[in-house]
Amino acid sequence: MRRVSVTGRLFLVVMLLAFAFPFLPLLVASFSFRWHWPALLPTQWLWDARETTPFPVGWDYLFSPISGLGPAFLNTVVIGVVTALLAVVLSLPAARVLARYTFRGKGVVEFFLLVPVIVPQIAVGMGMLLLFMRIGIARTYVGIILAHLVPAIPYAVRILTSVFQNLDPRYEEQARTLGSGWLSTFRRIVLPMVLPGVTTAFLFSFLISANIFLLTFLISGGRLQTLPTMLFSHIESGAPLDATTAGLVLIVSVPGLVFLMISDWLTGDHAALGRTSFGSRSKKERP
Amino acid sequence: MSRNFFRDRRVVIFLGLAPAVGTLLFLFVGPLLVALVQSLGHAPIYRVHRFPTLEFHRQVLFSTRFRIAAVVTLYYALVPTFLATLLGVALAVTFSRRVRGKRFLSFFFRLPLVVPYLVGAAMVVALFANGGLIARLLYAAGLIESTGQFPRILFSAGGWGIMLVYLFKQVPFTFIIVTAVLSGVGPEYEEAARTLGASRMQAFRFVLLPRIMPGVVTSSLLVFAFNFQSYEIPYLLGATFPATLPVEALRRFNVPDLTRRPEAMAYVVAITVISGIVLFAYLRLYRRWERSRGGVG
């Protein structure tokens, strides 16, 4: 492998700064109380202001019951877990069929299972709100979870299909030949072998759900807050370098950070995230 | 039912596909049909019974506001798509070389990818607002004397704030997809080309690029499709006028006069159709390019 050139190294450093540096001012701002123009650092820090202000501010405000952070966090996690579970369960059989069988119209099915990713979510969301109002699940957890399934299923199908492509069907055939029923074949042979891939699909679906704004915003009608909708209203109403918004940004980033760390630890491979999405369609590795 | 029924190939295929396909038929096709039908004048709950009429579509498509919105939406979508693809590919190719601290770098190169777009919006506000950190740095350097002298990057028709957020999220997206493709290609072809006397540019243009092209096309396609329909970023960081198509659509959806809802639906139908046409044209162009060069083994 060739060594990276000097310009290349410079480029990598510039990119590193572009992606990592923007978190820093928000980290500083989250501990500020006042940050007047044109100071480069907060004019008064949170810990110096605690005695003088009657209301909790910044982190104190976020972690107090009035901020609504607790419910928003809980909503995000509950909706994310249920969405991810449903997405995996619904996508698993389809992924197995797509990986194992060729049949007429397969291209159409594959296209149909991917197309929600490129169709404008605002069109789906508005139509969905009207549909859900009709059947009485608008502004409910059920409605939001169903909405989140639309972007989650295509990714889950994609990830799980590549899982089944890497799984040799002869293991199953042998188990069946040796007298194992389909349930115990699934439980003892298939499940242990697909578990890492299924975990990835679950985590990825959870992350998609936890980061969705527009569908939640439309379907919940402001009645149920999740972390992204809460961040939205804070950015909408807050000043730049506002302490509460800054703290919230850091909290909203937590699911993504955890996802990155787990997926690195699971795979030990920095390219895995790309392979699980849409990058390498044609590649079918067989052990 | 006999055991054989569940062994029938067609039954296995049908039952396997049914859960995912059925769910999306209900949750994806259903809502799109509702939007389409309502845009054609069928909305009995708002006392609009004019189905089928193209009046709402005509009203929307022939308005100046719609056309201006369509132009700015395309502009805000295409510029970052182009730049993110360029930077993302460059980053992936550079990163595929021997680099020290790969794990550390790769963690931060993927970080923007896993946080919501709204996080990017908050960052752009903190840095580029008129009272933001960059304005303060310029003040400290003596280049500006008041916040008013800082160029308006946010809330202006130029859309710089919007496009910066897209870049922050989508350079990493392109990077990760192209990196995955590159790891399948391996360094051998490029090294062989260099050994045989190709310059660095030639080796990239004629050896590496054709091999990563499918990944480049996929990622740029997904990036454009996202940018064209994004709501919250142009809403938060764009100008009030001109606004993008999704912002205009939701404005119409939220007016108190519910009989105007079909207009909003005509907007989202138009957004879907325009996005579809662009993506289709792009894929056709790529297919033709691929055929003209005969494909790579």
What does this structure look like?
The complex is a heterodimer of chains A (287) and B (297). Chain A has helices spanning 6-20, 23-30, 46-49, 58-62, 69-100, 106-114, 121-135, 141-165, 170-177, 182-211, 214-220, 227-237, 243-252, 254-267, 272-276; strands spanning 32-34, 44-45. Chain A has 287 residues and is mainly α. Chain A folds into two domains: 27-67 and 225-252, no CATH class; 78-221 and 255-276, MetI-like (MetI-like fold), CATH 1.10.3720. In chain A, helix 8 (141-165) runs antiparallel to helix 11 (214-220), helix 9 packs antiparallel against helix 10 and helix 10 (182-211) runs antiparallel to helix 14. Chain B has one domain (40-292): MetI-like (MetI-like fold, Orthogonal Bundle). Chain B is built from twelve helices and two strands, in the order H-E-E-H-H-H-H-H-H-H-H-H-H-H. Chain B has helices at residues 9-39, 55-61, 64-95, 102-110, 117-128, 133-140, 160-185, 188-195, 200-229, 232-237, 245-253, 261-292; strands spanning 42-43, 48-49. In chain B, helix 1 crosses helix 12, helix 8 runs antiparallel to helix 9 (200-229) and helix 9 (200-229) runs antiparallel to helix 12. Chain B is globular and about 70 Å long. The relative contact order of chain B is 0.13. The model of chain B has no long low-confidence stretch (mean pLDDT 92). At the A-B interface, helix 1, helix 2, helix 5, helix 6 and helix 7 of A face helix 1, helix 3, helix 4, helix 5 and helix 6 of B.
